[in-house]
User: Which sequence fits this backbone?
């Protein structure tokens, strides 16, 4: 079943815009755009996903050093290396698969690489906690 | 809003009166439902055929537009002990992405969460000094 997604970030600050842009260019699905806010250290940017069928944050890419093998990577771990200390990047993502599945997730990362995650599916757990073990909460 | 798109549907839940539930679904524009047997018991899933959960509907006979609250409307049809979870997500291309879920108990009590909740979690984790823009511009 084909799914479609959309993903983009908040506005965050990078230390070296040229280095950040060079990193973005290594990942075909990503597009970076500078914001109009010129105050503060570094450069404020927004990151979003384009040029792919699925629209979600990329999880795999071709590894040029290993004969073109496709490998997993963590886009937020790599993004963190470009952040101005104190700036937090937040990536939001939604996924829809016809009438079968609707999901979403969010990741926040700081310059140290620490990540905080959220998935919309957590609401099933919250509902079970709120309504008790005698309530039936079916997933999709 | 030309580039705005949204989708909405639910988990599977039980209803106390099949006919009354179907009548309610049919009375609201852009609502549709399917049913599936789970463990031999009919369960329904609710979905929007429009852009997200409808907030108003037009009477088929008179055309009069009235407000609709899908969450409270659905709560009145849920079978005892069955919880419906309504999801909606969408985006306006080049501007924002959103997504949220609402769990509805037959009593009308709800639990909500949103992708925007990540900002609160990030503040709790990274501290008050962290610069966290909630906007995308």
Assistant:
């Amino acid at each position: 079943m084909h799914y479609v997604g959309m993903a983009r970030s908040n506005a965050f600050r990078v230390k070296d815009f040229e280095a950040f842009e060079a990193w973005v260019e290594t990942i075909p699905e990503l597009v970076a755009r500078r914001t109009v806010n010129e105050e503060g250290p570094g450069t404020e940017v927004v990151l979003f996903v384009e040029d792919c069928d699925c629209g979600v944050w990329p999880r795999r890419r071709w590894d040029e050093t290993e004969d073109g093998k496709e490998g997993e990577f963590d886009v937020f771990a790599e993004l963190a290396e470009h952040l101005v200390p104190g700036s937090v990047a937040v990536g939001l993502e939604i996924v829809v698969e016809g009438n079968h599945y609707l999901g979403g997730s969010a990741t926040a990362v700081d310059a140290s690489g620490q990540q905080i995650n959220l998935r919309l599916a957590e609401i099933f757990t919250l509902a079970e906690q709120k309504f008790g073990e005698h309530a039936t909460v079916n997933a999709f | 809003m030309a580039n705005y798109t949204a989708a909405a549907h639910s988990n599977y839940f039980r209803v106390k009166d099949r006919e009354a539930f179907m009548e309610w679904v049919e009375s609201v524009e852009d609502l549709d439902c399917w049913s599936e047997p789970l463990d031999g018991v009919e369960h329904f899933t609710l979905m929007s055929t429009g852009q997200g959960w409808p907030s108003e509907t037009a009477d088929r006979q008179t055309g009069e537009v009235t407000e609709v609250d899908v969450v409270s409307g659905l709560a009145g049809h849920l079978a005892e002990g069955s919880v419906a979870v309504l999801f909606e997500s969408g985006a306006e291309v080049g501007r924002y992405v959103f997504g949220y879920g609402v769990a509805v108990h037959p009593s009308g009590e709800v639990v909500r969460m949103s992708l925007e909740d990540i900002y609160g979690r990030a503040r709790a984790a990274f501290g008050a000094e962290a610069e966290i823009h909630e906007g995308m511009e």
In short: Chain A touches chain B through 51 residues (CB under 8 Å). The longest helix of chain A spans residues 122-131. The longest strand of chain A covers residues 4-14.
